[in-house]
Write a structure and sequence with these properties.
- The chain is of the alpha+beta class.
- The protein contains 13 helices and 14 strands.
- The strands form 3 sheets. A 5-stranded antiparallel beta sheet has the order 6-5-9-8-7. A 5-stranded mixed beta sheet has the order 11-12-10-13-14, sandwiched between helices. A 4-stranded antiparallel beta sheet has the order 2-3-1-4.
- A hairpin with a 7-residue loop joins strand 7 and strand 8.
């Protein structure tokens, strides 16, 4: 059995492509003749260092693989150092030497392991007691000041993972997996994650691992940055949504409102009239419609100009808008004509409202405009199961009579007047 540790170091700036190439390289080993297994470690504190442990059934197969590495084009700036475990490749106890490495039997590996701050190594007895630790391991698995007895790995492993780790120690098949992650308490109140590989040795196990603390700190910083960015995006999205909602409300309001008078437009009136007519028929409630028309409006435009005419329309819109309840409807019906719809209001009340509006219209004063503005009104109450077209036509007929009867007056629909 031949065991080799390959240590890769990428040049500055080539870490990411080197990492990809290294992992690809490790996966390719599975197809090599005589390959018995491997462990992959990455130095989390130094992103340029990678460690590959390979085991071979014969020196010949290892040499065949090794010759390929000499001429290998890594595609990035990478240096490769091979550390042979055992005094020579012919050493039949190479694997044993690996497990004894940090005791000094293999000088090159033991020096590197003992001085490493980021790759830790422990020799474990089968019962989990720790026989030896390198410098990095002493930081992660520290001795307790008051503890005189031997350290045990179980004192450091997070309780929920102890059972699965014990299975790895007990069963050879479980140790054939590649490196795995383990949460240890590190003598602190909170656990850290380490990546480890287990290898058999006479009388125990060698556990090699890479500390993910630096990597975790980078992830934490990146996660915090991402959280801040997401929070900023969420606030920006909320602000944009509010702006969009306001814009949509403005667009909807503009689409349903007459720009000159501020009242509902004809489209909105038609929709609301259909709704209120259906409600009135369903609930057997009264519904009154008033149509109003400015008297001699064409003459106002001809004499005083369209600007004054617009002022007249706007002023009358303010009067009508101020005299309706929240559930009543005041709309510009078209040109100089207005419509007012009063749910729950019978004809007599509708006539009184129209008369009040007529008097208020006579008080409107327009700068550089006519001395007096008069308005004619037609009023009708809904007849049960009547269509909207018929309802409007009857109201319009009442308005027509008011215009033909001298203007500046209120007329009720004749059909409504004949109702008991």
């Amino acid at each position: 059995m031949v065991t080799v540790i390959s240590r890769f170091r990428a040049r500055a700036g080539a870490e990411d492509p080197a990492r990809i190439e290294f992992l690809t390289h490790a996966r390719e080993l599975e197809n090599e003749n005589g390959f018995c297994g491997s462990g992959v470690l990455m130095d989390a504190a130094d992103g340029s260092v990678f460690l590959l442990i390979t085991r071979w059934d014969s020196e010949a197969n290892f040499r065949c693989w090794g010759s390929k590495q000499t001429n290998r084009d890594w595609g990035c700036d990478v240096s490769l150092t091979e550390i042979f475990v055992g005094h020579s490749l012919d050493d039949p106890y190479a694997e044993l030497s690996l497990n004894c490495a940090i005791e000094g039997q293999t000088v090159a590996l033991s020096r590197w392991l003992n001085e490493s701050d980021t790759v830790f190594a422990l020799l474990l007895h089968p019962d989990g007691s720790i026989r030896l630790r390198n410098r990095a391991a002493k930081r992660i698995f520290p001795s307790h000041p008051d503890q005189n007895s031997d350290l045990r790995i179980w004192e450091f492993i997070v309780t929920s993972e102890a059972e699965s780790f014990a299975r790895r120690l007990a069963y050879t098949e479980a140790r054939k997996d590649e490196s795995f992650r383990l949460n240890v308490s590190a003598g602190e109140d909170y656990p850290i994650t380490v990546e480890v590989s287990l290898m058999d040795c006479p009388g125990g196990f060698l556990m090699l691992g890479a500390v993910e603390e630096a990597h975790a700190l980078r992830l934490q910083a990146e996660r915090q940055m991402l959280t801040n960015q997401l929070a900023t995006m969420a606030r920006e999205l909320a602000r944009k949504n509010k702006e969009l909602e306001a814009a949509n409300r403005s667009i909807e309001h503009s689409a349903r409102t007459d720009a000159l008078t501020g009242l509902s437009n004809r489209r909105t009136l038609d929709e609301l009239l259909a709704r209120e007519l259906s409600r009135a028929n369903r609930q057997h409630q009264p519904l009154t419609l008033i149509l109003a028309d400015i008297d001699y409006f064409k003459r106002i435009n001809d004499i005083y100009g369209h600007v004054v005419g617009d002022h007249v329309l706007s002023a009358l819109g303010r009067v009508f808008g101020s005299q309706v309840r929240t559930y009543d409807i005041a709309a510009r019906y078209g040109g100089e004509e207005f419509a007012l719809l009063f749910p729950g209001t019978a004809l007599p009340e509708g006539l009184a409202i129209a008369e009040r509006l007529r008097r208020q219209a006579g008080n409107i004063q327009i700068l550089d405009g006519p001395e007096r503005i008069t308005v004619s009104f037609g009023v009708a109450a809904l007849i049960e199961n009547e269509s909207a077209e018929t309802f409007i036509a009857r109201t319009d007929a009442a308005l027509y009579r008011a215009k033909n009867s001298g203007r500046n007056r209120v007329e009720a629909d004749e059909l409504c007047s004949l109702q008991p």
